[in-house]
């Protein structure tokens, strides 16, 4: 076990004991408690997203779009972005789940789901990054990124700051305080009009849009995640980590892959919430745990077959769930750095074929794992503790991209 991760877990447990014992006991004396969980599921081939009550499996709403959608939930959980890259448009769905923090407890207000009257259009929107009270939308072929205020969205307005990405490319933008971390394309290489230039690094932009310092090298930059106050990016050379540094802007550090690692790189990253760490892929049949504050930053975990999807459990910070193409669901203990149990949850879904072929996707809701099974028009619900299927939710068509929103809070 890495010392810093163990320390983070102990601190998390101590804080949880202080925050969630006496205060919630007092909150329960004066307030009723309610709980609500909702799934949002996009179809693989039809331009539609469905909102589903997780408790009873009933459809709460069906939202017709213009194209195939990938779903991203905001940091607050109040909105879901339905990004339709092939249709050059993004719709926004109100989840009807609204938490407000009151220090010793949080309130939960539940309302109807709905399609907001605001859309975002541009050439090939792709990566959407939720962060605090806003989301950052990157347009691969539009040469721009947009920082979108969520509160304005919920009022039916657009409050957007637009960033110039220098040249159209498949990139990403992330805010860090008043600064923006923005992928940098190769502006010198000549490309076919149908091709996008390669990414060569990361730029830091100040509040006025001016670049600070030189471009930090990060060949083939792809994948980003935030954990605590750090932001990480996957690169050919290693993982690039940005830290807030006050007056001088973010501090950028490259964590090179160990020389002992096999050939490969990280292109998808997830960030821990209760603990500071990152989980990334390393090629197709391995994952890597990254602790930027450790002397040995990387731990490689081999999988029996190729990875189909993976995610972290925000409520149980030790757990990561990895679905492999043989249909097995693996539980990775991020402290031990080991697969601690597994179970078969779907039939095999091969990674061969088109990258966007219909394959299962994962979400976590109320201590359970929701797994889309597009071949059988189902969302399979698996108990996170036992890995046993508890029920299924029938979903018309080919359920594909999925996100879960919800929790418990005091009700007034």
TrEMBL record:
* Signal peptide residue numbers: 1-27
InterPro entries attached here? AztD-like (IPR047697), Quino_amine_DH_bsu (IPR011044)
Q: Which UniProt keywords apply?
A: Signal
**The protein's name:** 40-residue YVTN family beta-propeller repeat-containing protein
Q: Which organism is it from?
A: Allorhizobium borbori
């Amino acid at each position: 076990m890495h010392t810093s991760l163990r320390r983070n877990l102990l601190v998390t447990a101590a804080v949880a004991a202080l925050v969630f014992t006496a205060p919630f006991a007092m909150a329960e004396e004066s307030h009723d408690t309610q709980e609500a969980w909702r799934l949002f599921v996009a179809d693989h081939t039809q331009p539609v997203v469905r909102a589903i009550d997780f408790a009873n499996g009933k459809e709460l709403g069906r939202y017709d779009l213009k194209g195939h959608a990938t779903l991203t939930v905001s940091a607050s959980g109040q909105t879901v972005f339905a990004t339709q890259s092939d249709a050059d448009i993004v719709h926004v769905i109100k989840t009807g789940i609204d938490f407000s923090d009151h220090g010793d407890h949080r309130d939960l207000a539940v309302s109807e789901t709905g399609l907001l009257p605001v859309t975002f259009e541009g050439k090939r929107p792709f990566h959407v990054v939720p962060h605090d009270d806003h989301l950052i939308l990157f347009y691969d072929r539009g040469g721009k990124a947009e920082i979108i205020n969520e509160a304005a969205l919920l009022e039916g307005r657009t409050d957007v700051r637009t960033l110039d990405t220098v040249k159209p490319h498949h990139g990403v933008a992330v805010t860090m305080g008043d600064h923006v971390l923005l992928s940098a394309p190769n502006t010198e290489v000549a490309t076919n009009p149908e091709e996008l230039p390669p990414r060569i690094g990361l730029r830091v932009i100040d509040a006025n849009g001016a670049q600070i310092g030189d471009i930090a090298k990060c060949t083939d930059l792809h994948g980003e995640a935030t954990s605590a106050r750090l932001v990480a990016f996957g690169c050919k050379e290693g993982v690039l980590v940005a830290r807030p540094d006050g007056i001088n802007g973010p501090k950028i550090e490259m964590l090179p892959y160990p020389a002992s690692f096999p050939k490969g790189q990280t292109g998808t990253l997830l960030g821990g919430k209760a603990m500071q760490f990152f989980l990334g892929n390393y090629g197709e049949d391995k994952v890597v745990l990254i602790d930027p504050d450790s002397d040995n930053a990387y731990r490689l975990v081999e999988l029996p077959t190729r990875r189909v999807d993976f995610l972290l459990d925000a409520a149980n910070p030790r757990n990561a769930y990895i679905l492999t193409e043989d249909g097995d669901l693996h539980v990775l203990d991020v402290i031990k750095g080991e697969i601690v149990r597994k179970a078969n949850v779907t039939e095999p879904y091969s990674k061969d074929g088109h990258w966007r072929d219909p394959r299962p996707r994962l979400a976590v809701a109320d201590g359970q794992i929701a797994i889309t099974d597009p071949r059988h028009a189902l969302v399979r619900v698996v108990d996170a503790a036992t890995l046993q299927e508890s029920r299924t939710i029938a979903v018309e068509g080919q359920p594909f991209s999925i996100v879960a929103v919800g929790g418990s809070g005091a009700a007034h």
